[in-house]
Structure formats: structure tokens, C-alpha cells
Design a protein that fits this description.
Number of domains: 2
Largest sheet: 9 strands, mixed
Helix content: 25-40%
CATH topology of the largest domain: Rossmann fold
Distance between the termini: 7 Å
Strand order of the largest sheet: 3-4-5-2-1-6-7-11-12
Number of strands: 18
Length: 466
């Protein structure tokens, strides 16, 4: 099959997993894969990517104007074609997606322009793509535009977050250049506003969500972020595919299935870098999230004093919104046992993954399993709530028969959360049991090969045998 990947950012945390790694595995399965991206200035300055102009230029309608673009091209070392859409007005910016650079009107016009360019590019590629794989709201206009134009491409939309929907003023619908009837309850209209993601769900041929539990929860009012009814109406085209994880191969130098003891060296280096007291009797515990939910932070704050009474070290990584001050107070009060890192770099995050023993996930519904799977890949034992969407990754540990890959708590209370952590602390004190548990976790397969085969199955069902 010929597959065209449409992503708003190649090297963001989410799309690095969901786009480039998937493309590489599909390429290994003998599919022809190309990725089309906006040509951001940061690609030159930070990512060291230097595409060359193809000489191809064309214009697309955006509102009352026809705006030109230029196509640039390069290839990855493993042969994946990267195509870039150049228009300085929209993409010559330092920080793609930053609110500082995109006001509401600008974002809607920017990604309407990007969607139009992707479709025009798809029509010019030879052979024509069988599949256009889209990611999140930034590319969610593509399925509607494909349907409206009657093009032969099948579209698949992967959604990593239902919270980010691309909601804009109703007047911004003019930027899409779609017929007026598309701005209706059966189209892109959402309570009087323009909603890119809703349109993607309605008009894509298949929708991919990151876990089976999340696929179920997303169809409920509590977790559907207003789109639960739309998802229920189109449940027949929902698919759950877990993203794979690509870890630093250097991890094998420190620990793995055959030698998990190397974790202690990484833990010592982590504690030293954060100026926390070394050699605790208990484990190094971490909470990692791009945005800590208010409920999750409340659960954590309710148990921190009791938990830090133990000889443990805790590292919290991620922005916490309204609870930022409270976490900073804990970091000051327990300065040698607790570290709070609201903003940090990728190298520090990598060091946390290599050095942590236990991963905590107190919130009701994680948006995707990428962080959890990465922690498992690094031999970190999870303590998670049962409804967090991770049933297929974590089974509750049973000491009697030494089965399971983590610790699951079921009630949405601080006491249940703390009980799950204490069960983990108890097993941590038994070296044999802990080593066996970590070895079971490290033995799991989270490779992109499995994810690629699942995507291949979805694509094949859409286009037929090839």
C-alpha cells in the first residue's frame, strides 16, 4: 500500500511515536510511506533537518484568497520520504503550536491551509496514496475535505487527546472552503463553534484510539470531553491500537531481562543529579505526566506526608496547574527526599525513566499509554487505578503465584491509592520477588512492530487486499 502520513509536528512527544516510528515499521512491512509536515523554522535550527525544494508550487483556497505554498523534500536514513509544506506566513515560527504564536484565528487558518495542501499534494503523488493517516485535531479537516471532493483516498484519524479538539469561532468556518451544509449538527458545528476534531470523527473512514479501555471510556459523558455522543454514533469505526515504544538502546548496557540489578546504579545517578539523599532503604518513586490533573494531584497531596515518612525518594515531573505551589512547598519541606520538576529537559526525563523503581498514576483516565509503556520498558513497576485505561498493560500482582506486572487499586480514594503503594513497598523489600516482578515487566513486548501490524490490518480492511 501507499500510505501518506499527515502530522503537524514530526518530533513532538506524541507524534514522534505515532508517526515516524510507525512509518519505519510499515516501511519494513513493504509499504511505501511518506510523511507530510509543515516546514517550521525550528526544523532547521533545532532538528538539523535540511530539506531541498522540489520546485513544486501550487495555491489552495483559504477563505476568499488563494494562498501559494512550496514543497520541500528529504529522506530519513532508512528511506522514509519527508515532504514539507512551506509558507512563511504560517510556518516560519520558532515554536510550533505555541499559543504565543497562534491566536485562534491564525490557528484555524493555518491548519485549514495545511489540510488543503496535504490533499493537493496527495493528488499529485504517483502512485496515488491508498491511505491518508491523520493525527489529532490539526489534521482532522482532511477527512472532511476528502469526502467533499470525492477523492479515492481512505482516511484514518488517530486521536491521542480528546481534550484538544481545535475549537474556533463559527466565522472561521470560512477558512475551510467547505460547502455551508458542513457547518451543521451533522458536520463541523459544535454548540455554535467550529470543531475540527468532531469533523474528523464524522468523516474519517476509521478512528484509532490508544487503548481498549480508553475507547470505552471516551464514549461516556464523564470522559468524552463533549464528543462522547459523536463517538457512540460512530462506534463501528473505532479501533484501539496501542502505540509502540522506542527506547534508548543504551538501556541494555545498564539493565535488562537478564541483568535487572543495574537499575540501582541509574537510581544513584538520578538522586545525585537532583540533590536527594542517596541509598534509601525504599524505592525511587516517580509521577510523570505532561499535565497533572487536579484530581490526580489531589490524590497525591493527600498521601505525600504519610508516604514520605517512609525511607523513599519521590520525583514528580510535569505541570500541575493550580497545585504548583503546594508541590513546591513539599519540595522545600522534604528537600532531600522529594523533587518537583514542572519544567525540565529531555535528558532529565530520560534519567528519571532509567532511575525510578515505581511509577504512580493516580488520575482517573490517562490520555494515552505512552508514558506507562515507556516506564514498563525501563523496568519501572506501576501503581495505577483500575479505570486508568491500562488493563492490557498492567495486571495486579499476586504474591502467592508471583503473577502480574504491577499494583492496581480500585477505589477512587487516597487510602486505596496509598494501599496500592504500600503493597509495592512491601514487595520491594523482598529482593527475589521484586527481581522476578521487574523481569516479568521487562519481558513484555511493546515494540512498534506489533502496532504497525494492527494499523496494517485496519488499512487492509479499508482498501481491500493488496
Amino acid at each position: 500500500m501507499k500510505i501518506l502520513m499527515a502530522a503537524s509536528e514530526l518530533l513532538s512527544e506524541t507524534e514522534r511515536s505515532a508517526c515516524l516510528a510507525l512509518s519505519r515499521e510499515l516501511h519494513k512491512l513493504s509499504h511505501k510511506v511518506s510523511i507530510v509536515l509543515p516546514f517550521y523554522r525550528s526544523l532547521l535550527k533545532e532538528k538539523k533537518i535540511y530539506p531541498k525544494s522540489t520546485g513544486v508550487q501550487f495555491s489552495v483556497p483559504i477563505g476568499t484568497q488563494y494562498l501559494p505554498c512550496e514543497i520541500f523534500e528529504t529522506h530519513t536514513i532508512d528511506g522514509i520520504q519527508l515532504l514539507f509544506i512551506g509558507r512563511d506566513e504560517f510556518f516560519d515560527r520558532e515554536e510550533p503550536g505555541s499559543e504565543r504564536h497562534y491566536n485562534h484565528s491564525d490557528k484555524s487558518a493555518c491548519f485549514a491551509f495545511y489540510a488543503r495542501c496535504v490533499i493537493q499534494l496527495a493528488r499529485r503523488i504517483s502512485p496515488l496514496p491508498d491511505i491518508i493517516q491523520c493525527y489529532d485535531w490539526q489534521t482532522a479537516l482532511i477527512p472532511a475535505m476528502v469526502k467533499d471532493a470525492g477523492l479515492p483516498f481512505k482516511t484514518v484519524l488517530s486521536i491521542s487527546s480528546l481534550e484538544d479538539q481545535g475549537n474556533f469561532w463559527s466565522r472561521d468556518f470560512a477558512f475551510t472552503n467547505l460547502p455551508k451544509h458542513y457547518f451543521s449538527a451533522t458536520g463541523l458545528e459544535f454548540y455554535g463553534s467550529l470543531n475540527f476534531l468532531k469533523g474528523g470523527i464524522l468523516f474519517a473512514d476509521a478512528i484509532v484510539l490508544p487503548s481498549s479501555r480508553y475507547m470505552i471510556e471516551a464514549q461516556k459523558p464523564e470522559y468524552g470531553c463533549g464528543l462522547d455522543a459523536v463517538l457512540r454514533e460512530h462506534s463501528q469505526k473505532l479501533h484501539e491500537i496501542c502505540d509502540g515504544i522506542s527506547c534508548d538502546k543504551s538501556i541494555d548496557k545498564f539493565y535488562g531481562v537478564s541483568h535487572p540489578a543495574g537499575k540501582s546504579k541509574c537510581s544513584s545517578e538520578l538522586l545525585s543529579s537532583l540533590h536527594l539523599t542517596s541509598s534509601p532503604k525504599g524505592p525511587v518513586i516517580t509521577v510523570i505526566s505532561r499535565l497533572l490533573t487536579s484530581e490526580g494531584v489531589a490524590m497525591l497531596l493527600a498521601i505525600l506526608d504519610r508516604l514520605l515518612a517512609e525511607d523513599v525518594r519521590i520525583v514528580v515531573f510535569g505541570r500541575s496547574g493550580g497545585s504548583d505551589v503546594a508541590l513546591r512547598v513539599f519540595a522545600h519541606r522534604y528537600r532531600f527526599k522529594f523533587a518537583y520538576l514542572p519544567e525540565s529537559d529531555e535528558s532529565t526525563l530520560h534519567q528519571i525513566f532509567t532511575g525510578a523503581d515505581i511509577f504512580l498514576s493516580p488520575s482517573d483516565l490517562e490520555l494515552d499509554g505512552a508514558t506507562l509503556m515507556k516506564s514498563l520498558k525501563y523496568g519501572i513497576v506501576p501503581v495505577i487505578r483500575a479505570c486508568s485505561g491500562f488493563y492490557q498493560f498492567v495486571q495486579d500482582y499476586e504474591p502467592a503465584n508471583k503473577s502480574g506486572t504491577g499494583f492496581v487499586f480500585y477505589e477512587n480514594t487516597p487510602e486505596a491509592f496509598l494501599d496500592g503503594i504500600r503493597r509495592a513497598l512491601e514487595i520491594f523489600q523482598s529482593k527475589d520477588q521484586w527481581t522476578q516482578l521487574v523481569s516479568s515487566i521487562l519481558s513484555q513486548d511493546f515494540s512498534w512492530r506489533l502496532s504497525a501490524k494492527s494499523f496494517e490490518s485496519v488499512y487492509t480492511n479499508l482498501v481491500g487486499a493488496f
